[in-house]
Amino acid sequence: MALGLALAGAQASTPYRAAPPAIRAALDAALPARNLISPDQQWLALAEPRRFTPLEELARPQLRLAGARFEAGNRSAPPGYALQSLRIRRLMDAKASERRIALPGGGAWHGFAWAPDGKRFVLQRRTAQASELWWGTPQAEALQRIEGLQLNHVLSEFELTWWSGHELIVLATTQTGAPPKPPLSGPQVQEHQGRASPERSLPDLLRSEHDEQLLAHYALSQLARVDLRSGLWRRLGEPGLFHSVAVAGHGQALLTERLTRPFSRALAWDDFPQTVELRSPQGKVLREVAKVPARQGVAIDGVLPGPRVFYASPGADAAIYWVEALDGGNPQTRVAYRDRVMRLAPPYKGEAIEVQRMPHRFARLRFLEQGEHALLTEVDRSRAWTRTYLLPLDGSQSRALFEHALRERFRHPGSPMMRTTPHGGRVVAQAGDGSFWFAGAGVGPKGERPFVDRYSLKDHPVQRVFQAAEGQVETALTWLDGRRLFTQMERPLEAPQLGLREGSQWQALQSPRELSPALRSLKRQYLSFKREDGVELSAWLLLPPDHQEGQRRPALIWAYPREYSDAELASQAAAFSDLGHLPPPGSPVWLALEGYAVVYEATMPVVGDNRAVNDGLIEQLQMNARALVDQLHDSGAVDTQRLAIGGQSYGAFMAVNLLTHTNLFKAGIARSGAYNRTLTPFGFQSERRNLWEARSTYLRISPFLNAEKITEPLLLIHGEQDSNPGTPALQSERLYQALAGLGQAVRLTLLPYEGHTLGSREAASHLQWEMHNWLRRHLGPPR
Description:
Blueprint: H1 2-11, H2 21-27, E1 34-37, E2 43-49, H3 55-58, E3 63-65, E4 68-70, E5 83-90, E6 99-100, E7 108-114, E8 121-126, E9 131-136, E10 144-145, E11 161-162, E12 167-173, H4 209-219, E13 221-227, E14 232-240, E15 242-248, E16 253-259, E17 274-279, E18 285-292, E19 308-312, E20 320-325, E21 339-344, E22 353-358, E23 361-367, E24 373-380, E25 385-392, E26 399-405, E27 415-416, E28 418-420, E29 426-428, E30 436-440, E31 443-444, E32 447-448, E33 451-455, E34 463-467, E35 473-479, E36 484-490, E37 497-502, E38 505-508, H5 517-521, E39 523-530, E40 536-543, E41 553-564, H6 567-572, E42 597-607, H7 617-635, E43 638-648, H8 650-661, E44 667-671, H9 695-700, E45 714-719, H10 729-741, E46 746-751, H11 761-779
Parallel strand pairs: 41-42, 41-43, 43-44, 44-45, 45-46
Antiparallel strand pairs: 1-2, 2-5, 3-4, 5-6, 7-8, 8-9, 9-10, 11-12, 12-13, 13-14, 15-16, 16-17, 17-18, 19-20, 20-21, 21-22, 23-24, 24-25, 25-26, 27-30, 28-29, 30-33, 31-32, 33-34, 35-36, 36-37, 37-38, 39-40, 40-42
Helix pairs in contact: 1-10, 7-8
């Protein structure tokens, strides 16, 4: 009875509390605008993101079906990135006046995209009743709505597909009448017979025939072609449960993917059976490319045995590509080749031809601009290794470009520089001689020096054509021509600044802007040290603006553990990087404004064999924590007798484990974590073994099952609507019940309407109040 009362008390609804004044001011700082260059390189759009989602918008009722969460009225979920304002100006004139684009009220604006010809742009507005498509031109301040068109984002999120410089393909809502009414409740039955089906724990699965009917009703969409020159649109073909559409070539055909029955009650919608089809420009089915079965019974890290991962070439060849497993989809099968890439060329008759075989699992295909090659990437999960090839699309011999560990930082080759074609496709940009570029962060022991490397189509050495000066983080964006490069300068505590680089000369195209005076006022120390086995570690120590030499302050350590296959890769994580970005609203950084020391971005490596790395998780977390506490003591600025440990998601799992297995901390803060690994029995994070293969490890690293060892006060915070697999709010509720039942000091705060991360201003302020109040109660005043 006492346990029930304790939980009821923790869950009692209370008003949102306000964060301390200095933190409130920091939460209200505007986010920097995103720099969006038009494809014709004539215009610059400055899209300022909305920092918070209004609480009333988050509170609107949502349907939860097969892993999709959306509102019935507008058939979409709240956009993760909404606009506060939009301004446009001439790109090359730094002194050009900015034209503010009027965003009519009544909804959330998002999805800005330039048309491929740069003459127009589109935006989406989400209201309670509809998801709308609007368009504008750089010269006009007013937007225009595509009348009569309502978008359907139940399955497609917010992506648009360009047909040409002024036309695009969207998924439109169909008029299907009233939704099916629920029947009288009856038993909910699931049955499984046959082969093993090791599905990971997922939220919001279908539970009844009525759920299936609702999904079919709301997800039914219509292919539609929109012409921005006229503002008109027309339907293509018949409605279906579409979730993907791509244009082949320069509009020769459409490649569509749609769900088909039977639906599953053990899988999310994207693992349901699907039909992949080629369609004419009018929407008529030309050919069925594949019937993809439900992803049921697939081994962990396995794939379906038949065709999967479909691509439409954006080049003039208009070919269709897909991948097929050569090992039956089972990673445990010993074979010379695991996957192959197939190609079907126009007129899409006959059988597809094999283009390439890979010894490891397919990861990605990117097409080069001139249409004769692609970049093909594969991944060896057993070694946590990846390799990228230059692939001739005629099926001739490919050439390996580079390979590296998945966690590689120092020798990472970067990513290809992309370009939008006049027909709207995204391709790897090429020079006249066919060469192409990779841009990378250039991480080294002293920090980042971004670079651009040029790759020849012939087997020539890679040529470095740009690298930022030491101490500068200048990132390449796109080429203006063969000599001049648009780059973005990132200085500590300033918004990214767009500029034009020609040789040693850099011309600013924007004025610098400070991110947050509050953040600049904090005192910062970068800590670099080693743990007892020699692995390099690092952390940022943030101190209050009024901190004086010799003062020792109570501190909150905030970290997130990551797995590495060897000590060298783990040490790379400790490379110096400047803490110059605006932290998110829920960041513990802001607690330093109220007098506490905050240890941020503390590296917590876990090193070991990929298959058994968690067998040593506890010991390595202990080693990391001891080394960090010793370093904080040596810094002279932290009272190591008054330390709290905290983290978000997997960091929360880490924090509670450190409370369970060390005596280094006086309190803990755990947000949106998972604490009972028996509730994720088919793997989590990098763990690929199931509970029954690694029973002792699952039990040992589950703090819920060792709750009697947690004697320090613990604050648990969780978004009530957390949809992240493995971290439902139930995880925090059950740990709260366990600790309360054992008589330990524990507090549980469930934030209504919030997910795995924060959305509303109210929740962000309350979360800061909770953390600040918890530190005052259990670490004492900050001085």
